[in-house]
Amino acid sequence: MTAIADRHTVPSPASALVCRNCGAEYPLGPQHACFECFGPLEIGYDADALARITREDIEAGPHSLWRYAGLLPVGHDSATRVESGTGMTPLIRADRLADELGFTAPLWIKDDSANPTHSFKDRVVSVAITAARELGFSRIACASTGNLANSVAAHAARIGMPSIVFVPADLEPAKIIQTAIYGGTLVGIEGSYDDVNRLCSQLSEEDEFESTGFVNVNIRPYYAEGSKTLGYEVAEQLGWRVPGQYLAPMASGSMLTKINKAFKELVGAGLVPSSSWKVYGAQSAGCSPIATAFAAGSSDVVPVKPTGIAKSLNIGNPADGPYALDAVRASGGAIAAVDDDEIREGIRLLARTTGMFAETAGGVTVAVLRKLVEAGQLDTSVETVLYNTGDGLKTIDAVSSGAHPTAVIPPTLKGMRDAGLL
Ligand SMILES: *Cc1c(COP(=O)(O)O)cnc(C)c1O
Ligand SMILES: [Zn+2]
Question: What whole-number distance in Å separates Cα of residue 221 and Cα of residue 214?
Answer without folding.
Answer: 11
